[in-house]
Design brief:
This protein is of the alpha/beta class. The chain has a domain at 209-308. It has 15 helices and seven strands. It has a five-stranded mixed beta sheet. The longest helix is centred in the C-terminal third of the chain and has 23 residues, at 255-277. It is globular.
């Protein structure tokens, strides 16, 4: 039980109900039951006549609705049914009203400070994931709609350890990155999964070693290329060396050891090319080996940045984690029904994902935004 229960009661964050079988002053022990109370609250505000009477939903209902929609991934139809059930039929919130809750909160979210935080960091992780939507912007700026099928669109994340920003784009082009206007202003290290368009932004690029080792593992198992397993073990070794350094307080690689890593990298690439000369163009695994050796040769600086500069990450898993919720939503809730719904989701999810990284309570974060709506009379 919380030691500050009386303070929580005073702050309106808890109730303390006492059921006593003993007289005052007698010795006792306490059994506790921890529960939640969910009942409709009808607040009547009596005022002098003038402006026409109105009925509106309160802050707590709005916050719970947005939380369950965006975090809990409950579709609006099931969410409307939920409020009907828990209120014993006293509250039935329409699907349009629930969507408007998300819209009103999203409109109050200002991501400029989050963008500032990203731009002033040393590393930005970037990645994107496809979504399905019944509506998306066309090239002329109007919205195109499908009734019996869906469009492909993309949610992109820009993030670091303390901040997450999600954006929505109808296409995954370089121009869409320009329109997001984040990487266009970023001068640090971009951590990414070897997506060609991202190389055109930022100053340095740390290409994900985790994706690379997975590809190499697949080549070793599927194409039976022992060379791929040698390269994979080499990258794992370098990462373990760096992690051990960081654990012991060192923030840069020993120059001699770095030189040895560089030499081994070049030797492994050359070994792959030598192996390729013994294979015909139609040999099993030849295409995969040729593409991989060419990639490792061309993008050497990007794949070795993590060991040359300890501020550069080995993996882009941060971006993967930030997009996991979007992928789960796609599986659970299906497609988005409107483009505005996609935009609202991205803004609210950016707010809540950042709040979670910073150890803030998500409901309190939504209450703060909702209180701004109330004070503004919305």
């Amino acid at each position: 039980m919380p030691e500050n229960l009386s303070e929580l009661v005073t702050a309106g964050k808890a109730e303390h109900v006492v059921i006593s079988d003993v007289a005052d002053g007698e010795a006792y022990v306490s059994d506790w039951i921890v529960d939640l109370k969910i009942i409709p609250v009808f607040t009547e505000h009596r005022r002098t006549p003038g402006i026409s009477p109105k009925i509106e939903y309160g802050m707590k209902l709005k916050v719970v609705a947005v939380y369950l929609s965006v975090v809990g991934l409950i579709a609006v139809k099931r969410l409307s049914e939920f409020f009907h059930e828990v209120s014993h039929g006293l509250i039935t919130v329409s699907k349009a009203t629930l969507a408007n809750f998300n819209l009103s909160i999203a409109n109050k979210i200002n991501l400029e400070q989050y963008i500032h935080d990203l731009l002033n960091g040393k590393v930005v992780h970037v990645d994107e994931t496809p979504i399905k939507t019944s509506e998306r912007p066309s090239s002329d700026g109007t919205l195109e709609t499908f009734e019996r099928t869906t469009f492909n669109a993309y949610i992109r994340t820009y993030s670091n350890k303390t901040t997450t920003i999600l954006t929505a784009n109808p296409h995954k082009t370089e121009q869409s990155v320009v329109l997001d206007n984040i990487l266009t202003k970023f001068l640090g290290i971009i951590s990414q999964d070897h997506e060609s368009k991202f190389y055109n932004f930022g100053t340095l690029h740390a290409t994900c070693g985790a994706h690379l080792t997975c590809e190499l593992k697949g080549m070793a198992q599927l194409q039976m290329l022992e060379w791929a397993d040698d390269v994979r073990r080499f990258f794992v070794e370098m990462n373990e060396y760096k992690n051990n350094d960081v654990h012991n307080g060192s923030m840069s690689c020993d120059p001699i050891k770095l030189y040895q890593f560089e030499i081994r990298y070049d030797e492994l690439v050359q070994a792959g090319k030598t192996k390729l000369t013994s294979m015909t163009s139609k040999s099993f695994g030849a295409d995969e080996l040729r593409r991989m050796t060419n990639r490792l040769e061309k993008y050497k600086d990007n794949y070795l940045l993590f060991i040359r500069n300890y501020e550069a990450p080995f993996t882009n898993n941060q971006a993967e984690r930030d997009l996991r919720h979007c992928k789960t939503k796609q599986k659970v809730s299906g497609c988005f029904r409107s483009w505005q719904g996609v935009l609202d989701y991205c803004k609210i999810r950016s707010l809540l994902a950042t709040a979670k990284k910073r150890g803030e309570n998500l409901l309190d974060t939504l209450f703060c935004i909702t209180s701004q709506l109330t004070s503004a009379g919305q």
